[in-house]
Amino acid sequence: MPRLANIGCLATCANPVGQDDIGLIRDAALVWRDGTVRWTGPAAALPAEYEAEPARDAGGGLVIPGLVDAHTHLAFGGWRAGEFSDRIRGRGYLEIAAAGGGIASTVRATRALDEEALLARAHEFLSGMVSLGITTVEAKSGYGLDLETELRLLRVYRRLGEMGPARVVATCLAAHVVPPEWSADRAGYVRLVTERILPAVAEDGLAEFCDVFVEDSAFSADEARQICERGCELGLRPKLHVDQLSGGGGAELAASLGAVSADHLEYVSEAGIEALAAAGVVAVTLPLATLYLNQAPPPARALIDGGVAVAVASDFNPGTAPSWHLPFAMTLACTRQRMTPAEVLKGATRYAARAVGREGELGSLEPGAAADFTIIDAPDVEHWLYHLRPNACVAAAIGGETLHGIRRKA
After folding, report:
1. What is the pLDDT of residue 410?
2. Residue 405 dihedral angles phi and psi, to the nearest 5°
């Protein structure tokens, strides 16, 4: 039964309520067996039965639950660096999309890659995430927008989950935008999603969630409701991209559908916040996207004060958040969303796990949870997120199995 010793500060994130309650324990120890946490607490209170167990040395660092990135678009073809310059020159997101750029350009590049090429790219990205201390990643399709390519992307995620190095939770985002070949028949594309793509995904068990981008340039609330209700019939729980570019009652829609999460929320209304809180929907904020799009961030303080659990994710994608650096997104959540470091850590661990249906299993270090942990070279959470570095992660483990960096204690 291994134990982690010489922990300067341990954040268990064990409490399911309280955005800023991260369960801090100074001079701590952690014990696990068969990939599951058995005990956490002050090192001085370590039960005698564990004292002779083999110890691994945390080097006096900060130990946190393995980070959970609850919103990524992991597998795709190509990049969109030209749009970066276009936006700096003043071209808007919708203007770029109308000219054939944006999501449509990534769809063209993604359709051109076979499964092995997509797998190799996504595996490289995932390895980079793990090096930052990310142990679980939600991964969306949505760059196929036809039956063949959507299934190809989701098969890539299934294979990544089997081969590692991180845990992968798959989401079907076939309703990302209406692809150009269906622009004259929106209803026909919605039927393709509801009658062919979602049933095929469910039959093969390729995803757990069904997502829809609800926006004037994507899908209406009525279309999203139709797609999500069909997904629910098939056992795919709803997640929604809402209120990102404009306010349209997206949060209220997510609440009415019983969505697991409502993501983006830059334009969420007071009524939307109340609806999310009442329905227990997690708000997933995406600081990198607002940075790259030069948008005002979502009102995280109002969400937290209104009783909504707020998660923080990267939104890694080739257009509006071309970085998988979740710790950087966490620092941005502090500086731009006015969340405290403790609130942000809870948002990238326990509440992120809630946003992917894994609360109590992942995102916390408490008896019964998976022994997924990350060791950070910092004395505490405040110093880690304040002192921005390329990478402060010195070790990470999934189910107690070392991925890199940890050493046995002499």
Report:
1. 38
2. 85, -20
Closest CA to 392 of 325, 294, 321, 337: 325
pTM for the structure as a whole: 0.96
Question: Do the Cβ atoms of 369 and 37 come closer than 8 Å?
Answer: yes
Asked if 8 and 62 count as a contact pair (C-beta separation under 8 A), the reply is: yes
Element (H, E) at 410: none
Please count the other Cβ atoms lying within 10 Å of the Cβ belonging to residue 163: 11
**Residue 262 pairs with which residues in a beta bridge?**
240, 283
Distance, CA of 130 to CA of 212 (rounded, Å): 27
- Write the secondary structure of 277-300 as one string of H (helix), E (strand) and C (coil): HHHCCEEEECHHHHHHCCCCCCCH
Helix (H) or strand (E) holding 408: strand 407-408
Q: What are phi and psi of 319, to 5 degrees?
A: -110, -60
> Residue 148 carries which side chain, given as an amino acid letter?
E
User: pLDDT of 190-220, one tens digit each?
Assistant: 999 999 999 999 999 999 999 999 999 899 9
Q: Kindly state the tokens that stand for 199.
A: 């049933």
Break the chain down into helix, strand, coil percent, rounded to 5: 40, 25, 40
How many Å apart are CA 296 and CA 3, to the nearest integer? Answer: 44
